[in-house]
TrEMBL record:
GO terms for molecular function: phosphatase activity. This is Putative histidine acid phosphatase. It comes from the Eukaryota. InterPro entries: His_PPase_superfam, Histidine_acid_phosphatase. The lineage of its organism: Eukaryota, Fungi, Dikarya, Ascomycota, Pezizomycotina. It comes from Diplodia seriata.
Amino acid sequence: MFTTCDGESHLLPRNSRTPYASNTFPVENYPWYCSDSGVFHQGAPLNPAGNASAHTYWSVYTDPSNPFSHTGFNGNCQFPQITRGGLYDSWQHGRDLWDVYHYLLSFLPSIDPLSVMEFRVTNNVITSHVASMLIAGMFSSENPPQTLPKGPLPIKVQPPSIDSLEPRYPCPASAALLSLYGPGSNASSWLAHLAASRPLFAALDSISGVPSDDAASNTDDEWHRSWDHYFDNLSARLCDAKRLPCDKKGKCVTDSQAAAVFRLGQHEYSRLWRAAPESLPAAAAGYGVWVAELAAPIRDIVAATAAAANRRGGEVKPRVRYRHNVAHDGSVARLLALLQVDVMVWPGMGAEVVFEVYTNRRKEVSGAAAAAVYVRVLWGGRVLRSSHPDLGALDMLDARVLLAYLDGLVGRGASKVPGMCGLQ
């Protein structure tokens, strides 16, 4: 019987948002307004506090005296920006997490829960927007007895040049592996995939105004080296309940064309992060530092539980019991590749991987059973299934098995990663 979790780590991509500016069409046929949400930017004295700071947000506008026009959508959004719907989804997700880990599992305490919780983001500001709403949802007035603390809350972020969560640390070997078989490569299988989908590219180019890719082997054209740009553009619209785009003559992208783009995107992610033989070493090198950071607190719980069992008493209570990381689809894809997930998909907005660590707290249990630590990994709300025989269904898996697997790939403290990245 496992009465509660002893550790919790979440990896969550950002929620519904506007597309990246690089993924917008040269001329969009309707505007996109974000007057119902704000991108807040402010600084304030801290430790010790000083003069109060104004609560300011960016108000996007174009001055009539500015002779230059911008590409993409007219309106007042940042690209990217979490939409109002995405902000609400983040808040609701936080509320749901509190319902599960406080009320259902009695894992997060009623008194000062933030003292045992950590939140982390990447250097992309949209992850901070998601985190701020998620935290507010967890500590909303609708979740008594907790309400959001009045003071500022720290959110962890690593320096941009070595951030392991996004990831952005230098790893030329991982990038080199991806260049052998993925976007921009001359791999025959990738070029054949692009050639087979060329009619759809041509149909969408005629509507979007994106310059057509006339050369079948043109690997420098960002819009036609993969389906990433069209996928991001169309999915962002549909996630925000916007209509599919049309050209000036009224010819529009059809539902079936959009569905084909999404299928092709799923195919590409499956190939990039699971099907290709190079995908595992590319992910292990490119995301191994974050995986080592994930393994460290699990290892600490294993050691502390064994020590408590030898003392025949004492409850293991790690200082930080809940860790929440807000990252990106590429972050989640690399983690799924590292775990050799059975079925790879393009991680959607709001998709989540959860690591739960369990110990046996029944007083009558002693010896090896008392020292046992187990891990459950959830992907999309269900137990993650790995194709690796040592992992299988990650449902109450012996934590030592998972640690041995991760250590074998990246080393304790990511000791193997610099060499895998070609930096040693």
